[in-house]
Amino acid sequence: MFVEVARRIWGGSVVEGGEPPVLEAPRRRPKIGLALGAGVARGWAGIGVVRALKAAGIEPDVVSGTSMGAVVGGCMLAGKLDELEAFARDLTPRKVLSLIDIRFGGSGLVGGDRLGKLLGHHLGETAIETLEKPFVAVATELSTGHEIWLSRGGLVEALRASYALPGVFEPCRLGRRLLVDGALVNPVPVSVCQALGADLIIAANFAHDGHRHATVVQASHLHDLEADEPAGSPVERAGRRFVGRLFGSTPERPGITGVMMESFNIIQERIMRSRLAGDPPDVMIAPKLGSIGLVDFHRAAEAIEIGREAAERAVPEIAHMMSALAR
Question: Where is the motif named DGA/G mapped on this chain (predicted)?
Answer without folding.
Answer: 181-183
